[in-house]
């Protein structure tokens, strides 16, 4: 496991259990292995949940390829890699297969020569020395092949998925769960249906393709989601919708998302409570066709105005506005006032630790102003959508 990614996970408070999310992402038209959609949904889940599993045939395809890259090129299960990948990157595996075959042939020829000749003869056998030199280069060629695949992983965004799996937040399930090596499409359907048939204690977050599968399953009587499961679907799909509307979310890296999550753990608790309230205002489950429209109406009606109110309240509650509007009005402007203005951040920290002593020292008016500021700031931070506001401000700086 990548140590840096693991450290990000620890810092972000990532843990198993808690608010667990199941992400379902379909194949689309099957012509593109790009994982941008999966990455976006995984980042949303990382920002809001505590752990997640990604059900995606495309992501699992890359996972199988990574698992097949153990040892030297001679040990790679290239046939398995080619089977799960197919399409546009098959040519890469053809090259690997050719190289692997060359190494195998070289190894076999060396063994045959060694069985028939003495060591002294081997030391001067040009053919044997050529084969031996080739085998010595196997490590370098394996490293080059691994680098070529890493470039493909980055091209198709699998490296971002790996950062979340290495951080301990995301898992991709076992090969058997997605039918690797058998009928993968049927296995994908069954894995999605199992969320409901096995009453999994998880919050389902689906893309449009997977939502269509759920609707089809309901229509054909293969699943019958409970009211509780429908409610859970709203309690993750609503915040995912809200967060995806924020500026620069798509540009944010996995590390930046985990950093934000770490910094905003406390406001997230209140935001989750607010989302439960919002969920009660929408009748459709997240997989229903009208859900996205309902979510947009709710965002414009309740969430966007609440964020604006927070922005206005913070502007009104700025320290300098308090000082200018209160201290000057009360005639407390002095050398002390100039000192406070020029060292405003430090003064705030000091006040937070020893406000009482400052008041006792004759700074009552100024201390009261800052006490009012802190009281208002605390009130603002308790707003249910303060989490969204803070995420928005951090994303604006990316």
Structure write-up:
The structure is a single chain. With 398 residues, this protein is mostly helical. It contains 19 helices and 4 strands. The protein has a 4-stranded parallel β-sheet, with helices on both faces. Helix 2 (36-48) links the parallel strand 1 and strand 2 (51-55). Helix 3 (57-67) runs antiparallel to helix 4. The chain is elongated. Mean pLDDT is 80; it is low at 5-15 and 353-362.
Major sheet = 4 strands, parallel
Number of helical stretches of at least 4 residues: 19
Q: Helix/strand/pairing class, anyone?
A: mainly alpha
Strand residue content: under 5%
Rg of Cα set: 29 Å
- Give the end-to-end Cα distance, rounded to a whole number of Å: 27 Å
Number of strands: 4
As a percent range, the share of helical residues equals 55-70%
| Main sheet: strand order | 3-2-1-4
Order of helices and strands: HEHEHHHHHHHEHEHHHHHHHHH
Rough shape?
elongated
Low-confidence stretches: 5-15, 353-362
Arithmetic mean of pLDDT: 80
Quick recap:
The chain is mainly alpha-helical. The chain has 19 helices and 4 strands.
Which keywords apply here?
single chain; 398 residues; mainly alpha; 4-stranded parallel β-sheet; 4 strands; 68% helix
Structural topology:
Blueprint: H1 3-11, E1 20-24, H2 36-48, E2 51-55, H3 57-67, H4 78-85, H5 90-116, H6 119-122, H7 126-136, H8 138-155, H9 158-166, E3 170-171, H10 184-197, E4 203-206, H11 208-219, H12 227-244, H13 254-263, H14 265-279, H15 291-316, H16 319-327, H17 335-342, H18 344-381, H19 386-396
Parallel strand pairs: 1-2, 1-4, 2-3
Helix pairs in contact: 1-9, 1-13, 2-9, 2-12, 2-13, 3-4, 4-5, 5-7, 12-14, 16-18
């Amino acid at each position: 496991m990548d140590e840096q990614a693991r450290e990000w996970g620890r810092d972000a408070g990532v843990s198993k259990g808690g608010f667990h999310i199941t992400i379902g992402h379909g194949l689309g038209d099957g012509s593109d292995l790009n994982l941008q959609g999966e990455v976006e949904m995984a980042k949303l889940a990382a920002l809001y949940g505590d752990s997640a599993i990604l059900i995606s045939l495309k992501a699992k395809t890359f996972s199988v390829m990574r698992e097949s890259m153990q040892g030297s090129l001679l040990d790679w299960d290239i046939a398995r890699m080619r089977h799960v990948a197919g399409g546009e990157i098959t040519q890469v595996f053809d090259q690997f297969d050719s190289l692997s075959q060359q190494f195998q042939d070289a190894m076999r020829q060396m063994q045959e020569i060694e069985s028939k000749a003495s060591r002294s003869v081997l030391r001067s056998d040009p053919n044997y020395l050529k084969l031996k030199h080739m085998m010595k280069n196997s490590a370098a060629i394996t490293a080059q092949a691994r680098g070529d695949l890493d470039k493909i992983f980055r091209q198709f965004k699998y490296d971002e998925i790996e950062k979340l799996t290495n951080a301990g937040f995301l898992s991709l399930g076992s090969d058997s769960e997605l039918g690797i090596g058998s009928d993968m499409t049927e296995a994908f359907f069954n894995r999605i249906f199992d969320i409901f048939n096995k009453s999994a204690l998880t919050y389902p977050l689906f893309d449009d393709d997977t939502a269509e599968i759920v609707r089809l399953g309901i229509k054909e009587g293969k699943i019958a989601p409970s009211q509780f499961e429908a409610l859970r679907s709203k309690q993750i799909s609503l915040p995912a919708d809200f967060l995806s509307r924020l500026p620069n979310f798509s540009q944010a890296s996995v590390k930046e998302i985990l950093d934000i999550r770490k910094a905003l753990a406390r406001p997230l608790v209140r935001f989750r409570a607010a989302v439960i309230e919002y969920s009660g205002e929408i009748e459709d489950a997240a997989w229903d066709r009208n859900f996205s429209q309902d979510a947009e109406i709710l965002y414009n009606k309740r969430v966007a105005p609440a964020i604006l109110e927070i922005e206005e309240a913070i502007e009104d509650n700025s320290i300098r506005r308090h000082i200018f509007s209160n201290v000057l009005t009360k005639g407390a402007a002095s050398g002390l006032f100039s000192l406070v203005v020029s060292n405003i951040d430090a003064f705030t920290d000091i006040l937070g630790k020893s406000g009482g002593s400052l008041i006792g020292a004759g700074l009552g008016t100024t201390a009261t102003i800052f006490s009012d500021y802190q009281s208002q700031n605390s009130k603002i931070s308790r707003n249910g959508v303060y989490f969204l506001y803070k995420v928005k401000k951090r994303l604006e700086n990316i």
